[in-house]
């Protein structure tokens, strides 16, 4: 009985030393921590700003997020968002740089083709726009944004002409009351 009691006392006294972690051991490569929420706060905040319509702030934050991107997925998201942000700012040459970088890194990015097609539509480069629309639609045929880009292209290249003309002129005789 005495051995059991001694064992429990020793265990009770030594357990905090075994289970505790010093501050220098927390969040090191050997002891990773779990983070709840977005890992790249600048990238997340940049995307939120772009969706809220604040393109300048969104582009600025996304640049910061790109600098600290963790892995290929975050880097591609940043490049895609920068392309879209610069399109919203109507800075098409800057947007094209990031779309091209994205597509060099991942030629299966339908968003990259969609964004670049929009640049080509806005700069009236119809053949390049058509090529990117085809590639993007092959990668993701049902994407709503691809359909919107396609309709922008069709409106620009093949505008709808009115088939019916309404003659709303009135005869001078019809105005008279009999």
Quick overview of this protein structure:
This protein is an all-alpha fold and 178 residues long. The protein is 65% helix and 0% strand.
Task: Name a few traits of the molecule.
178 residues; mainly alpha; Serine Threonine Protein Phosphatase 5, Tetratricopeptide repeat; 65% helix
What does this structure look like?
The protein is mainly alpha-helical and 178 residues long. Among the domains are: 38-106, Tetratricopeptide repeat domain (Serine Threonine Protein Phosphatase 5, Tetratricopeptide repeat), CATH 1.25.40.10; 107-159. It is built from eight helices and no strands. The protein has helices at residues 2-19, 41-51, 55-67, 71-88, 92-105, 110-122, 126-139, 144-157. Helix 4 runs antiparallel to helix 5 (92-105) and helix 6 (110-122) runs parallel beside helix 8. It starts with a helix and ends in a 21-residue tail after the last helix. The relative contact order is 0.06. Residues 11-27 have low confidence and may be disordered.
User: What is the rounded Rg?
Assistant: 30 Å
User: CATH class of the domain at 38-106, please?
Assistant: Mainly Alpha
Are there runs of 5+ residues with pLDDT below 50, and where? Answer: 11-27
Proportion of residues in helical segments: 55-70%
Mean pLDDT: 84
Count of DSSP-assigned helices: 8
CATH superfamily of the domain at 38-106: Tetratricopeptide repeat domain
Oligomer: single chain
The major beta sheet can be summarized as: none
């Amino acid at each position: 009985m005495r051995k059991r009691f001694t064992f429990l006392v020793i265990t009770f006294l030594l357990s905090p030393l075994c289970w505790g972690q010093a501050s220098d051991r927390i969040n090191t490569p050997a002891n990773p921590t779990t983070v709840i929420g977005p890992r790249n706060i600048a990238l997340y905040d940049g995307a939120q700003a772009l969706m809220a319509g604040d393109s300048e702030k969104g582009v600025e934050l996304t640049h910061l997020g790109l600098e600290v991107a963790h892995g290929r997925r975050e880097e591609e998201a940043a490049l895609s968002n920068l392309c879209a942000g610069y399109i919203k700012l109507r800075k098409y040459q800057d947007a094209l740089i990031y779309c091209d970088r994205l597509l060099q890194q991942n030629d299966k990015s339908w968003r990259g083709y969609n964004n670049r097609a929009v640049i080509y539509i806005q700069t009236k480069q119809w053949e390049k726009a058509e090529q990117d629309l085809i590639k993007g639609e092959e990668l993701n045929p049902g994407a709503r944004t691809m359909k919107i880009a396609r309709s922008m292209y069709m409106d620009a290249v093949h505008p709808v002409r009115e088939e019916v003309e309404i003659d709303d002129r009135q005869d001078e005789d019809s105005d008279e009351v009999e």
